[in-house]
Specification:
Helix content: 40-55%
Number of strands: 9
Strand content: 5-15%
Oligomer: single chain
Strand order of the largest sheet: 6-5-4-3-2-1-7-8-9
Radius of gyration: 19 Å
Structural class: alpha/beta
Largest sheet: 9 strands, mixed
Length: about 325
Amino acid sequence: MMVWMKPYIKMVSRYIAFKLGAWKPLAAFYNVTLRCSLRCSFCNIWRRSGYKEASHEDAVRIVKKIGDAGIPGLGFSGGEPLLREDLIELAFEAKDYGMITSVNTNGMLVNEGNAKKLSKAFDYIIVSLDDIGLLHDEVRGIHGVYDRAIEAITTLKRYGATIGINTVVTRDNIRRITRLWRSLNDKVDFFTIQPVNPPQMIDIELSSKLIEELYEFKRRVNPSIPLPKSYIDGMARYMSGEVYKICDAGRLYIAIQPDGALIPCSVRDDVILGNILEEDLEIIIDAKRDEIEHTIENCSGCWLTCTTGISLTSREPVEIINSYNRIRLKASKTTTS
């Protein structure tokens, strides 16, 4: 059996357990830092840059605790995760546990010195790009971000990384998203998208037009959008204010804060379930099921790829498996000059 297949087999096993009612998350998201090098107009995480972070030794323990819980997929996020100098080491620790690793980054800190290691440490690297050129810079609050992101993509591809683009939909960029994606299609392997949270109340005709454009892009340009049809369709309703809560926090996914605090998902950082530096992850989840269910019941809902996207994927697994097969095929063929 090929080594790369083992974590995916583990993922299938956990998925079957989930379908049978078990509380055994398939994915964990470790927000390694809340520090960020950007000042995005739609995000306030960077305002919390003083949040306590685990030491290197404790961060390694956090990763090991996630691995000991049998979780097959670990996403590193933030803030800007590359601001942690030990990020690559943490990712390799996760891979030693047989976890599928991913990272979300703005690309600012990718360079020739770390690109090769990043490409080996992460199975998927997702770069945030919301608009074209200076328009992206305006959204992200720092001049030159767009050019640095493109440079990061080019450098990472040179070392064989599998690269995706994540785009956050706002009133300002909704008309240019597929144009942005077309300009990047020969540089990356896949695309994901999510509406800004909370919703900005975008006109339903405008949001519906975007959905049509996304399907046209998927059909004619690049089918590698690993999001189920139900998620893409639901974006239009969400952006116009109709929130349909679909949540499996605690059962299907979980999140960890920089200090090891366990939270139901990355959105609900106001609910601290425990700390995995003090107790095992599975013990905390088992003890706090009622609190998690109460949180879900009283949550206003969201439409993010790391929450609703995963929940809907669990209902349409074949479609997503096919998407990831296409991503692997495209990644193996993508080259840069």
